[in-house]
Write a structure and sequence with these properties.
The protein has about 240 residues and is α/β, with parallel strands linked by helices. The protein has a single domain (about 1-230), classed as TIM Barrel, CATH 3.20.20. It is about 45% helix and about 15% strand. It contains 9 helices and 8 strands. It has an 8-stranded parallel beta sheet with strand order 7-6-5-4-3-2-1-8. Bound molecules: pyridoxal-5'-phosphate. Pyridoxal-5'-phosphate binds near residues 38, 83, 210, 212 and 227.
Length: about 240
């Protein structure tokens, strides 16, 4: 193995161990939690190594970086998640490679994603990004819709051609009542997911938890954790 492959294999093993321990502590099965490796700022060669090491889900947050990377890795059996704030002028590109868009937070985006998914002949899984630091009807600083806006957006996604409602996603807030209270924040997301599943039973995905707080997310009931730096290393620049 190359040095990089050794390094990524060791990091992956550590992260899988953390997930396994968190599942055991919560009385959950390890298979209930899917690891998504966030490869933003890292090259396609790393994505290829991760695929060789058995990773099946990767995530990116900027279309400019993600589009060429996904093209370079088109031969690999990977599911691509888009997790960044998304401008409508990037939707056509994203709809060409993403399997899931986890950052759906406004109706205009739903309309654009639907149109481009149909055009590309693809079905896009959509997660509603929830901002737990937003005011009741506002949007979050880093994207996301306030809890009060989930139902309306979910109904739009569920009815939109080319889209499938997957569930909910959040990022632990840095401000507001949940700042520094990751487990409470993720618990709130679980409650919102329970509400959502009353009208959309198939929308079972709960995407929460990153390198620093994946244990809290697993404890709260997350089905998907998004882990970047704990697998790939600390990013050289903000992304
Ligand atoms: C970068 C990013 C992650 C991963 O963060 P790490 O702290 O590197 O694990 C998860 N989710 C989103 C939305 C991100 O942008």
């Amino acid at each position: 193995m190359t040095d990089r492959k050794d390094e990524l294999a060791a990091n992956l093993a550590k992260v899988e161990r953390r997930i396994a321990d968190a599942c055991a502590a919560a009385g959950r099965g390890h298979e209930e939690v899917t690891l998504i490796v966030v490869t933003k700022t890292y090259p396609a060669t790393d994505v290829r190594i991760l695929s060789e090491l058995g990773v099946r889900h990767v995530a990116e947050n900027r279309d400019q970086d993600a589009a060429p990377k996904a093209a370079a890795c088109a031969d690999l059996p990977l599911t691509w998640h888009f997790v960044g704030q998304l401008q409508t002028n990037k939707v056509r590109s994203v709809a060409g490679y993403a399997d899931f868009v986890q950052s759906v937070d406004r109706s205009k985006l739903v309309t654009a994603l639907s149109k481009e998914a149909v055009r590309a002949g693809r079905e896009l899984g959509c997660l509603i990004q929830v901002a737990l630091d937003a005011g009741e009807s506002a949007r979050g600083e880093r994207g996301g819709v306030a809890p009060a806006g989930i139902e309306e957006l979910a109904a739009l996604v569920a009815e939109a051609p080319g889209l499938r409602l997957g569930g909910l996603m959040t990022v632990a807030p840095l401000t507001g009542e949940y700042a520094g209270r990751e487990q409470a924040a993720f618990g709130r997301l679980m409650d919102l997911s329970t509400d959502l599943r009353r009208s959309h039973p198939a929308a079972t995905m709960v995407s929460a938890g990153m390198s620093a707080d994946l244990e809290q997310a697993v404890a709260a009931g997350a089905t998907h954790v998004r882990v970047g730096s704990a697998v790939l290393g600390v990013r050289p620049r903000l992304g």
